[in-house]
Amino acid sequence: METLVLEKSRKYNRLINVLAVAIPLVVAVLLGLRQKVDLGSWTKILPHVNAVINSLTAILLVVGFLFIQRKNVAAHRRTMTAAFVLGSLFLVSYVLYHLSNESTAFGGEGLIRPIYYFLLISHIVLSVVVVWFVLRAVYFAYSNQIIEHKKAVKWAFPIWLYVSITGVIVYLLISPYYQ
């Protein structure tokens, strides 16, 4: 398998820092738009697609972890690259859905309500934070800066796994309220 090899460079670190700020800001601005864009009724399925993407991402993260534990670097790289691609697809799908559909209100009552909002808020906050760690982890891996990669992954892996899993849980909790 042909792999991309990036050079060590300050410009990549600057780019990562810019993207780590720009991506959440752009998503927030797009989500904050009052006027929704009519992209068609097909966008109604995107929350379900996103749940599948998050589920597959969580599985790939665990499998990638197991591969690196077994010192299978090539399989680890392929698996983690696939997780990164799925994360990117999720982001596009998420933006398309929220650009074209109103947010769904959670209708649960009782104890499930604070649990839902705790999961939702922690999911959102950590999804913003994890962007920087994941971008750094990918860059360090592809530029063969393995020590730096391990430092980034120490934070990226558990946060990204939490975000992926809580994304599915939040979806399962709110899915009965989709119209």
From TrEMBL:
Organism, scientific name: Persicitalea jodogahamensis
Transmembrane segment boundaries: 12-33, 45-68, 80-100, 115-135, 155-174
Alphabetized InterPro entries for the sequence: DUF420 (IPR007352)
Name of the gene encoding the protein in the UniProt record: yozB
Keywords: Membrane, Transmembrane, Transmembrane helix
Superkingdom of origin: Bacteria
Protein name in UniProt: Putative membrane protein YozB
Pfam families reported in the protein's UniProt record: DUF420 (PF04238)
